[in-house]
Write a structure and sequence with these properties.
The structure holds 2 protein chains of 2 kinds. By secondary structure, chain A is mostly helical. Chain A has 10 helices and no strands. Chain A has a single domain, classed as MetI-like fold (Orthogonal Bundle), CATH 1.10.3720.10. In chain A, helix 3 packs across helix 10. The longest helix of chain A has about 40 residues. Chain B is of the alpha/beta class. Chain B is about 35% helix and about 25% strand. In chain B, helix 2 packs across helix 3, helix 2 runs parallel beside helix 4 and helix 6 crosses helix 7. Classes of the chains: A mainly alpha, B alpha/beta. The complex binds adenosine-5'-triphosphate (ATP) and magnesium ion.
């Protein structure tokens, strides 16, 4: 009953939007290359399902690798910066640079360095998604209560046990927040990477499908690819959410009563 | 084969604390917080420390605990039985929210490298001592404020400290819970024979708990009163109605007002 009540409104809204779109597209005779009706998009999706699924798996793999790199590197960078004010002052400005650098502009550089294919796409995904991991993990570690630090100091805790028994668990909610943002960004980064880096060893990713259907004016297929990209982001986001919930549900208020 | 030597008679446990000329100033705070303070605490004594807000009580506690170092002067801890083991109880319980009650209480032993079985047993004992033996697997968010504070007390006791520093530990609790914890603390002190330094804002609590009460002036902290309380060793709530108790509390309040509180 509760599931129905939360699911029903967005589903009804979706149905209404699709119906209006379908009716308008037909009534106003909008050319299919400008705005194909939902029925055309559905048909294209079914017809190219195999290729789309393959493309989604290619892009998904690159995004996943990029995301995992962001999670590891981002947390390590945050740990390093939190242990030294000098390191933080020296390097924080450049992590902001990661955030502001137009990925489209440096993607060609990535191809020069890492070659066309998976590696460039993965690095592009990493660059786009690492910043929120760093900032969230850093502020999580910084926000550990001073009294708890005193407690660890009083008993002569080593740097390592302060990190593993105090700082990382305390920062975990913030890290999960950062990873949630990074999950969506990593898919965006992978698709932008594919725009430039082209085919990867294992086939065409969603970025390639989007580009080629644009060139062929297959707007219906373009919509399908965008749909799959959104789904991919959603799946990664959902996985992070679930993992965060499992890790935090025993103690953190944000994860209780989902 | 020789019979093992009998344990030596238990000496007066607890640490003797002597502070000599302790000075501490902070940037941004006008003048020194501690300006050449001398203070001695006898081994095994229960001393209450009163003083106006911001006069430097917490600063002194942190210096004694070794969490902060003085700009000048020194603090020495003499223990007749082995090394000084200092424990600190803060104003709030400050438990690790991701650990259950038992492993919160065991944390100090974990940090000092005691084996798992031994520290769990010690934590269980400490929790029993504060009356929380049946809540060992609860998470901190499932406890009331008074229970959390008792876990915090158990965590402080788990290393068998010989110096216990408490910084307004029960200030955030309701009156009844506070009195119950006061009684518990007093009983633990009598049983364990450690040295206790207890910071509080309440003259009644100071008079009820301590053998000796010290009153600080406003910054820089000077000792404006240092009284050995003329009260019986056994403290029960009936004591609060005694004239002697009222007289001690009044004397402390006057010293506090005179010191600029
Ligand atoms: N780490 C610090 N950095 C800067 N100033 C500090 C620091 N610690 C304490 N102070 C200042 O030193 C003064 C004394 O602080 P302290 O905490 O010792 O007072 P207190 O007697 O414990 O007060 P209260 O009863 O309100 O707890 C205050 O003015 C405080 O702002
Ligand atoms: Mg204080």
């Amino acid at each position: 009953m509760r599931g129905f009540r939360t699911l029903a409104p967005p589903l009804v809204a979706l149905a209404l939007i699709l119906a209006t779109w379908e009716v308008l597209a037909r009534a106003l005779q909008i050319p299919a290359f400008l705005l194909p009706p939902p029925s055309a998009v559905a048909r294209a999706t079914l017809a190219e399902l195999g290729d789309l699924a393959l493309a989604a798996s290619v892009t998904g793999r690159a995004a996943l690798y990029g995301f995992l790199m962001s999670a590891c590197v981002g947390t390590l960078v945050a740990i390093a910066m939190s242990s030294s004010r000098i390191l933080e002052r020296a390097f924080y400005p450049y992590t902001v640079f990661l955030q502001t650098v137009p990925i489209v502009a440096i993607a060609p550089l990535l191809v020069l360095w890492f070659g066309a294919g998976l590696r460039s796409v993965m690095v592009s995904s990493f660059i786009v998604s690492v910043f929120p991991v760093i900032t969230n993990a850093l502020s999580g570690i910084r926000s550990v209560e001073p009294a708890l630090r005193d407690l660890f100091r009083l008993y002569g805790a080593s740097r390592l046990s302060t990190l593993t028994k105090l700082e990382l668990p305390a920062a975990l909610p913030a890290i999960v927040t950062g990873l949630r943002v990074a999950a969506g960004l990593s898919v965006i980064g992978a698709i932008v990477g594919e725009f430039v880096a082209g085919f990867s060893e294992s086939g065409a990713g969603l970025g390639i499908v989007i580009l080629s259907s644009y060139r062929q004016m297959r707007t219906d297929l373009l919509f399908s690819a965008v749909l799959f990209a959104a789904l991919l982001g959603l799946v990664l986001f959902g996985a992070v959410n679930l993992a965060g919930h499992l890790l935090l549900s025993r103690w953190h208020p944000s994860a209780r009563n989902p | 084969m020789l019979a093992p030597l009998p344990d030596p008679p238990e000496p007066k446990r607890g640490v003797r604390v002597s502070a000599r000329g302790v000075e501490r100033a902070f940037r941004g705070v006008g003048g020194a917080v501690l300006g050449g303070l001398d203070l001695d605490l006898a081994a095994g004594s229960f001393v209450a420390l009163l003083g106006p807000s911001g006069c430097g009580k917490s600063t002194l506690l942190r210096v004694i605990a070794g969490l902060d170092s003085p700009d000048a002067g020194s603090v020495t801890l003499d223990s007749t039985s082995g090394a000084a083991r200092v424990a600190f109880v803060f104003q709030d319980a400050h438990l690790l929210p991701w650990r259950d009650v038992l492993s919160n209480a065991a944390l100090p032993l974990e940090l000092t490298g005691t084996g798992a079985a031994e520290r769990r047993a010690a934590a269980r004992d400490a929790l029993d001592a504060v009356g929380l033996g049946d809540a060992t697997h609860k998470m901190p968010h499932e406890l009331s404020g008074g229970m959390r504070m008792r876990v915090s007390l158990a965590r402080a006791l788990v290393t068998r400290p010989n110096l216990l520093l408490l910084d307004e530990p029960f200030a955030a609790l309701d009156e009844l819970t506070r009195q119950r914890l006061d009684d518990q603390l007093r009983a633990l002190w009598a049983e364990l024979g450690l040295t206790v330094l207890f910071v509080t804002h309440s003259v009644d609590e100071a008079a009820y708990l301590a053998e000796r009460a010290i009153v600080f002036s406003a910054r820089p902290a000077r000792i404006v009163a240092d009284r050995t309380l003329a009260l019986p060793r056994a403290r029960t709530s009936a004591l609060r109605a005694e004239p002697a108790f009222g007289a001690e509390a009044r004397a402390l309040r006057e010293a506090l007002e005179q010191g600029g509180g």
